[in-house]
Amino acid sequence: QQACLWREGQVKILGELSKNGSSHAGAINDSGQIVGNAEVSQGDLLHGFLWQNGRMMDLNALVPDRKGWILGSAAGINNAGQIVCNGSHHDTMHAILLSPQAGA
């Protein structure tokens, strides 16, 4: 399974974070940014992703200095680019709001 975007009668496959991994889209904003989750290794380890400008990126690679946090499934993105996802820290799950830096 791979996340896809249906636009103007065409299907665009969004991609994957690991070879032969599955991905699932969760939300899209008015700018066409898409978030969801994708397998990053065998064993179904899921990371949240952001898809924009034709590229899928692991949220964990986009957040500097995570200090032990692992960002999992992304469920929503608003028009300001803020992303709602879940994450774990010391094996405890939390809801997380990621806000982009100005100019990023």
Characterization of this structure:
- The chain has 1 helix and 9 strands.
- The chain is mainly beta and 104 residues long.
- The strands form 3 sheets. A 4-stranded antiparallel sheet has the order 3-4-5-6. It has a 3-stranded antiparallel sheet with strand order 7-8-9, with no helix packed on it.
- A hairpin with a 2-residue loop joins strand 5 and strand 6 (55-58).
- The chain is globular.
Write the layout of secondary structure elements.
Layout: E1 4-7, E2 10-13, E3 23-28, E4 34-41, E5 45-52, E6 55-58, H1 59-62, E7 70-77, E8 83-89, E9 92-98
Antiparallel strand pairs: 1-2, 3-4, 4-5, 5-6, 7-8, 8-9
Calculate the mean pLDDT score and round it.
89
Structural class: mainly beta
Percent of residues in helices comes to under 10%
Our measurement of the CA-to-CA distance between the termini, rounded to an integer number of angstroms, reads 30 Å
How many helical stretches?
1
